[in-house]
Amino acid sequence: MASNEDTCHINGNHMRGLPPIWEVSRFTTYDFIWAFTAGLVAISVILSFSLVYAHLRNYNAPDQQRYIVRILFMVPIYSVASWLSLRYYWLSVFFDLVRDCYEAVVVYSLFLLMVEYMGGYETAKDTFGEKAKQKKFRALAPCCCFRLHAARWMLRLCKRLMLQFVFLRPATAFVAVGLHAASIYCPGNFSPHKGFLWVTLTNTLSISFAMFSLVQFYLLVRQDIQDYKPGSKFLAVKFVVFLSFWQGIAISLLARTNLLTEAPHWTMDNLTSFIQNSMVCVEMVAAALWHIHAFSYKGFVEQGKKTSVRTGLVDVINQADVWRDFVESYHPRSYRRRKYEMLEHRQDDAGGEEGGANNNNTGKGEEDLAPSQQKETSRLL
Predict the structure, then answer these.
(1) Cα(first)–Cα(last) distance of the chain, in Å?
(2) Rounded Cα–Cα distance for residues 158 and 135 (Å)
(3) How far apart are the C-alpha atoms of 325 and 341, rounded to whole Å?
(4) d(CA 42, CA 303)
(5) DSSP annotation string for 213-237
């Protein structure tokens, strides 16, 4: 029997010390699953931290390894948060807050890592400027009816769509915590009178835009960075982020359609959270093993040179670069910047239509700007 739409079981008092779902002698099934997932979490955390330590001891390419290590921290954070949610399920919304916030960091770190593989953001802009002179490509569904040039404006658009997820995902997580405290969030309840529906819709739109831009960016640059084997890295991140998000929605829908029913002494909210977090604990072992292959440290080893773990860790934890990117991408600095972007857009489109015939004219608009303005717009874009 599904939970009543007007009922939201979030008060921890009725959840603590619940009887197990099924009793097996003195050792319950719940105890077995909790102990089993504890072992899986220990394996995934040990594997991930071993790889993180190896990167930090060979932190010889900080521009790339900064984002690699941030991605690697995904497995310990996801697995520990999910395991704690199994034990303290009346507090799961708070553990989900940590997991959801870091999810956004991981997605953006993958984007920045691919940009670094291209030689940095300025080099990536030049590469996209050259791609504007090539044949148009067909955009991904649902925009597949459009044929576009891979111009520099597209690089900026991908970056902005990624950044909206970086800040919107944590924001909705904090909103969920606030609604939970007010007893109107109700995980798994798709009633329009509850907050879960609206938070889920917002997150779905946000992650869809972010993943669309990430996939489109990857397809455009994969040939340029094929020496770094980006396919396995891309799939490793997408596997965790995309699968965990959509499987949570799928479990909630199963509960909503009565295909998943309440167990004795367990509310539907408890049960859906229990299933979701158990699956994440299992999946993180696979993700940790995948990361060892996809994000190997061996390519960064320099004979006889070891770096400070503390120095590298401080660089990884410092998120000032993400905030700086957000400000520089969304803050309308000046009229000249907007004018420059529009002019650059026209140049790229013209270059794509006319090919090499206009190669000598594509920089004309930038030359019309003063050198100081060129330097400032180059830094901002």
Answers:
(1) 55
(2) 20
(3) 17
(4) 31
(5) HHHHHHHHHTTTTGGG-HHHHHHHH
What tokens appear for 341 in the block? 């972007």
- pTM for the predicted model, two decimal places: 0.77
DSSP string, 147-184: EE---HHHHHHHHHHHHHHHHHHHHHHHHHHHHHHTT-
Tokens of 208: 């869809």
Rounded distance, CA 177 to CA 11, Å?
A: 13
> Is residue 61's pLDDT more than 90?
yes
Rounded Cα–Cα distance for residues 44 and 30 (Å): 21
Structure tokens belonging to residue 10: 């979030």
Element (H, E) at 137: strand 137-138
The tokens describing 355, both together, are 């090919």
Q: For residue 239, what pLDDT is reported?
A: 80
**In the prediction, which pLDDT does 138 show?**
58
Cβ neighbours of residue 191 closer than 8 Å, sequence gap 6 or more: 5, 6, 197
